[in-house]
Amino acid sequence: MGDVIERPEGSIRPPRWAEALLRMFLKPEEAEIASGDLLEAYRDSIHPIRGDWRANLWYIRQVSGYILRTGEMHLRNWVLAGLTLCVLTIVFSVFRYPSLLEGPHAARFLLWIVGGVLLYGCAAVRWTHPATPEDAFIMRLGTKWGIAIGAVWITSLIFMNLVIPHEPWAGIGWLLALAGFALQLVPGIYGAMKTGRVRAGSRAGFWSSLVSGLMVFFILTAIGYVLAFVPGLPGAEFPKINHIYISGEFELVNVSDALGGSLAILFGLCPLFGGIGGTFLGWAGIQLARTGGPPDVFVK
After folding, report:
1. Are residues 93 and 219 in the same domain?
2. C-alpha angle 194-198-201 in degrees, rounded to nearest 5
3. pTM of this prediction?
4. Phi, psi values for residue 180, rounded to 5°
5. Both 90 and 176 in a single domain?
6. Are residues 186 and 237 in the same domain?
7. 214 contacts 260 by C-beta, under 8 angstroms
8. Which domain covers residue 18, as residue numbers?
9. 43 with 113, same domain?
10. What's the rounded Cα separation, in Å, for the pair 251 and 274?
11. Quick one: average pLDDT of 203-209?
12. Quick check: 228 and 250 in contact, CB under 8 A?
C-alpha cells in the first residue's frame, strides 16, 4: 500500500472559468452564496469521490443549472452565453485543424476575432441594463428582429448548402439571403422613428445584428461540419476541380470555408448592416416621421 498524498484544500478548485461565468450571470449577492455552496460541496464530497475530471464536470453542470434557473436569461445573458460558445467552437476547430491559423494573414485574423468578441462582450455587460423605458423598448425590438432575421438567414443557408443548389427552385436561398440583409436595416429605422432618436436606431440595429449574427455563426459552422463529414451533399466545397482530396483535406476545406463565412457575417456584415445602416437610415426615418407629426413613443 502506497502512502496517500493529500492535496492542500486551497489547491482543490473547480474550473475558474466556470466560476467566473457563475458570477457573470447571477446577481452579486446570489453569485456569492451559490459559489460558496458549490465550492464547499466540490471540496468536501464531490472531488474526494469523483476525482478531478468528473468533479469538474459536476461543477459545470451545477453552474449551468444555476444560470438557467435564474429566470433572467435576458439579452445580456444570451449574448454572453453565445459569445462563450462561439469562442469554444473556434478553439475546438483550431485544435482539430491547426492549419486554420497558418498563412500570412493568420495573426490579423486572430486579432480581428479577439477584438470582435471583446467588443460584443463589453457591449453586453455595459449596455444591457435598461435604465429607461426607451432602453427596454430598444432591447426588445433588437432581440425580436434579430431572431426573425436570423431565422431568415438560417433558412437561406439550408437551401444553399443542404439542397440541390443547381435546381431553379433552390434560388430561393439566395432570395432569402438578400431579404436577410435588407431586414437588418428595419430595426434601426423603426427604432429611430418610434423614439425620435438616431442613437436609439443605432442600438436597435446593433442588437438585432448581434443576435442574428450569433444564430448564423452556429448554424453555418454546423453546416460546415456536416458537409465535411457527410459526403455527397450539394453544398460541399471543391476549390480545385481536378484535385483528388483526401478526407483530411476535404474536411479542412469545408470547415474553414464555413467558419470563415460565419465569422465574416458575425464580425463584419452584421455591424455594417445593423449598426451603421441603422444609424444612417434611422436618421432618414426620423425626417420622414417629422413630416407626419411627432413619433409615437415606445410601442408595446
Report:
1. yes
2. 60
3. 0.71
4. -60, -40
5. yes
6. yes
7. no
8. 9-69
9. no
10. 32
11. 88
12. yes
